[in-house]
Amino acid sequence: MNTQESLEKWLNNQASPADMDVLNAWPDFKIYKKIDLHTKAIAVPVHDIPFAIQELKQRRSFAKNKAKKNSKIITMSHVLKIAAAFILLAVSSVYIASIPTKIEASMAQIERVDLPDTSKITLQKNARVGYKKYGWLFNREVTLEGEAFFEVAKGKTFTVITPHGVVQVLGTSFNVSTTNEILVVSCYEGLVSVSANGLNTFVSPGDSFTFGDQTVNNKVYTTKPNWIFNESSFVDVPLDIVLAEIENQYRVTITTKNIDVTLRYTGSFTHANVLEALRTVTLPLNLSFSKDAQNNVQIYNPKKQ
Amino acid sequence: MIEKETNICEDATFNRVYKEHAQSLRNFMFFKTKDKDASYDLVQEAFLKLWQNCSKVAPEKAKSYIFTIANNLFLNTVAHKKVQFKYIEGVKRTSENNTPEFILEEKEFGEKLKKALNSLTELQRTAFLMNRVEGKKYREIAAIYNISEKAAGKRVLDALEKLRETIENL
């Protein structure tokens, strides 16, 4: 009898006593027996059948639910991932675009603002503009308080929002003034559309519209507003508006005595010297003025005194 | 025969098949993975597949079906951990008298055997462990692997000889 055959039988639990005799006489068998003993001591996990059956039933119902949507879920999740990335991008860009940039001209200085598309705004003293720097190319929109001169590069509609009306243009130079509770729009180049007082008005080059209680059309003869050259210019406007402009320019307080403030004035005054400015305004109207050290100015009619 | 008329889709039949084969499949998977939890999951997944295909599998074919499925699932699990088997604690692995030196020697032998088991091919190890730990006959092993009884016996014997060689060289 052969050791290999006996060993094979022994492994298959079929060894006869004769096989055992052969194996026990074989020195190698000792180590095989040792391997066998140790192997039988290997810890094998017990399969907890009642628990596992319960758990399997849960897996079943889960798999059942999943099977209905399975393929859809997988494709959707990819679409959703991409969509989520785009939504995030869109939301963040909308957010960034909504951050407004605010620029304010100081009390005594004209301020120049260069917009992202080479459009330019020149701010009159004390004027304030706000615009959205990051969304600029999509939304050319400026909010304005005070007076400013706009030189607009060609492109999408350029909108100036003021408390008194909305000014829209395509590409021009125009002046918008909202001092004195009225809106004055002067167009120097191109065509400007103004919605104010519930009306839509087109302002052509050389026109200057005053939108107050009534709409008045005046003419401009320069290519830029006078204040840019440090003077204020008026064509047939009531005196009180001119005086308010002087107050605004020079930080003075003007009171009037015995005079008709609805007198019409045409002319310019300088921004360089308050006395000279007061003189230019009062002289043509045969008025006089006095000014004290506290910047209080009184304008009166010398003849009526 | 009643069995032929029953269907695995029926709960009672499914449960009977489960009770009959789950532990043996668990051992099979454990010998392959050496991992308690992974083997549990493979058993459950295999039975889940059986249940999903219950109308296509006859009860008497269920065993070979789940063993095949589990084996495929095992082959599909990419990361095969490098783990070793553990011995049942407190079980004497020898019939002989225990001197401290002897115990130490036995312990060393045990460690060598664990390493040696890892050096076997997965097919050798599983066949050998089914044979030694579970006491499965060559015929049963042959049925699982769909090989001849002789080939199964050869596989077990080869494993044993490889183990001895490895242990002697450690």
Please provide a written account of the structure.
- The complex is a heterodimer of chains A (305) and B (170).
- Chain A contains six helices and 19 strands.
- With 305 residues, chain A is of the alpha+beta class.
- A seven-stranded mixed beta sheet of chain A has the order 1-4-5-7-8-11-12, with no helix packed on it. In chain A, strands 2-3-6-9-10-13-14 form a seven-stranded antiparallel beta sheet, with no helix packed on it.
- In chain A, a hairpin with a 4-residue loop joins β18 and β19.
- The longest helix of chain A is centred in the N-terminal third of the chain and has 49 residues.
- The model of chain A has no long low-confidence stretch (mean pLDDT 81).
- Helix content of chain B is 70%, strand content 0%.
- At the A-B interface, α1, α3 and α4 of A face α2, α3, α5, α6 and α8 of B.
Write a brief structural summary.
Chain A is of the alpha+beta class and 305 residues long.
Give me the Rg of chain B, rounded.
Answer: 18 Å
Unreliable stretches of chain B, pLDDT < 50, 5 or more residues?
Answer: none
Strand count of chain B: 0
Number of helices of chain A: 6
Order of helices and strands of chain B: HHHHHHHH
Alpha-carbon Rg of chain A, integer? 46 Å
Shape estimate of chain A: rod-shaped
